[in-house]
Write a structure and sequence with these properties.
Elements (H helix, E strand, L loop, with lengths): L1 H16 L30 E4 L2 E7 L1 H10 L1 H4 L7 H6 L15 H15 L8 H18 L4 E2 L2 H17 L8 H17 L1 H9 L1 H30 L10 H11 L8 H14 L2 H16 L1 H15 L14 H14 L8 E2 L4 E3 L2 E3 L4 E5 L47 H18 E4 L24 E5 L4
The protein binds protoporphyrin IX containing FE (HEM) and 2-acetamido-2-deoxy-beta-D-glucopyranose (2 copies).
């Protein structure tokens, strides 16, 4: 038994040694080390490298990313199907959802369904906007309970983001204290931990330890999947034409309408739930965490935001998403925060769908594409002040908000984040409402703020504490 395993392992290592061949016209890059590929050199600004034995190309800079993902979107919008995360998810979610599905007509159908469901979600007092504002009230209550003491914001923002997306997915009515929210936030934080940190990045890319990590990931996803399944089985029979229609109900409608041969299946629904729940929680929460970290570290920026928010909202009860057009400075700050947060530094990996070319190099079908979104954030020639936190990067000489096309935290092209509008709405409504009511202060015993994010698939600021005071005008 043991001898057999040893022989198999030896054969496997031996084949890996000879699998890192570079195609003739492949872009230049360093020589890969067997098994590791170029993982030990991820700091280099390479054009080409190997993930274990799989050829990969890093897209560096806005021009290369736009050329590939937008102008040649058809060739560059695939997804690799054999990375660690696929191994972890496949046994649970048998059918692909959106995030990990390869470029195909069934991916397109589900993506379109997702976009439509988000777009059509509720109206008037049931609108997405009102849901988010309702959620900010919960945040306000939590913060009012801890005025003057220092609190850890991490769980609060993760719970808020998880709760908002859960409402859209299955009309979840539970509060933060409920095990349901706690469970999901716990799972998402654990999964992120696996992918985060420099070591986590290597693990993510290394074939030899992938299997072990997959099993751990599998356990977490399995739990989340079970919970989603329970919601569906309880609600399938009691389905009522309530408004707003959440994603599960819209999907079940779709299942009834379409016949066989459609790409909609119950398995797809579970994958879709997992995709949206996960993609919509950690990203938004970490952007909010970065936002408040910077607002506390730059009190003068916080005050200027509050002044402009007070002026624009004047006697109004609550902010609306439309108000953003008049709030030039807060908008500039939120965009600068996204630049600093660099939440998805390497996006989600893409794959080339057919033999193609990019900037004079030929790229064979199947090559993994790593869009280095970080590389656009400090690129020379695009920013007034690339290396500092400075909202002027998003203001013209008249102090009006401008959005340079090269800020792409949501990526670009056919695969661009489909929750962008929801995420922007959450960031704006939550930040503005909280800033209007509270002052956020770095606690005296909190050490010096450390603004460097923890490197990972989804980056997160180092844990910090914050002190909340009521504003005198509020
Ligand atoms: C600040 C918050 C967010 C950031 C920075 C972000 C960023 C990204 C990025 C970089 C991608 C990969 C795009 C690519 O492959 O090129 C992506 C994909 C995706 N995001 Fe987001 N995202 C955020 C919030 C959300 C939210 C709230 C949702 C919830 C609906 C969501 C749902 C998705 C989905 C479903 C995909 C996969 C799209 C596809 O593969 O076709 N995201 N996001
Ligand atoms: C991505 O770009 C950043 C900034 O230029 C660089 O520091 C980082 O090493 C690059 N990452 C990869 C994987 O090439
Ligand atoms: C398990 C579960 O979440 N069931 C939900 C079914 O739908 C109703 C109303 O839409 C919710 O109140 C239940 O919590």
């Amino acid at each position: 038994m043991f001898a057999c395993a040893a022989v198999l392992a030896a054969v496997w290592l031996f084949t890996l040694l000879f699998r890192t061949h570079r195609s003739p016209n492949f872009p230049p890059g360093p020589r890969p080390i067997p098994i590791f590929g170029n993982l030990l050199e991820l700091d280099l600004e390479n054009l080409c490298l190997f993930i274990g034995s799989r050829p990969a190309v890093v897209l560096h800079g806005f021009k290369a990313i736009k050329e590939a993902l937008v102008n040649k979107g058809n060739d560059f919008s695939g997804r690799a199907q054999d990375l660690m995360v696929n191994h972890a998810i496949h046994p649970i979610a048998h059918a692909p959802g959106v995030v990990l599905a390869d470029y195909s007509s069934s991916w397109r159908e589900r993506r379109r369904f997702g976009l439509m469901t988000l777009r059509n979600y509720g109206l008037g007092k049931d609108s997405m906007e009102q849901r988010i504002l309702g959620e900010v009230n919960t945040l306000i209550k939590l913060m009012e309970q801890s005025l003057g003491t220092s609190i850890s914001p991490q769980l609060i923002f993760h719970s808020a983001a998880s709760y908002i997306i859960s409402q859209i997915l299955f009309a979840q009515q539970y509060d933060y204290e409920h095990d349901f929210t706690k469970f999901f936030v716990g799972v998402f934080l654990e999964v992120s931990k696996i992918f985060n940190g420099r070591w986590g990045m290597w693990i993510h890319l290394m074939e030899c330890v992938e299997v072990l990590i997959s099993i751990r990931l599998f356990c977490f996803f399995q739990g989340a999947h079970e919970k989603h399944r329970k919601i569906l089985s309880e609600n399938k029979t009691t389905r009522v034409p309530q408004k707003p229609r959440h994603l599960i109900d819209c999907y079940l409608d779709e299942l009834e309408k379409v016949g066989d041969g459609s790409s909609f299946s119950e398995d797809n629904l579970y994958s879709l739930l997992l995709d949206f729940h996960f993609a919509g929680t950690d990203t938004t929460a970490n952007t909010l965490l970065t936002c408040f970290l910077y607002l506390m570290s730059y009190p003068e920026v916080q005050e200027r935001c509050q002044k402009e928010i007070d002026e624009v909202l004047d006697g109004k009860d609550q902010v609306s998403f439309e108000d953003r057009h008049e709030m030039h400075y807060p908008q500039a700050v939120l965009h600068e925060v996204q630049r600093m947060a660099d939440v998805a530094p390497l996006s989600v990996f893409h794959k080339v769908t057919r033999d193609t070319e990019l900037m004079g190099f030929s790229i064979p079908k199947g090559t993994i594409i790593i869009p280095n979104l970080s590389s656009t954030l400090t690129e020379d020639g695009y920013w007034k002040d690339p290396h500092h936190f400075n909202p002027d990067n998003f203001l013209n000489d008249e102090g009006q908000f401008i959005k340079p096309e090269n800020l792409i935290p949501f990526s670009a092209g056919p695969r661009t984040c489909l929750g962008e509008n929801l995420a922007r709405m959450e960031l704006f409504l939550i930040a503005v409402t909280l800033l209007r009511r509270f002052r956020f202060i770095w606690p005296e015993d909190g050490g010096t703020p450390d603004l460097t994010p923890q490197f990972g698939t989804i980056q997160t600021p180092k844990p910090y504490r914050m002190k909340v005071q009521l504003r005198p005008t509020a």
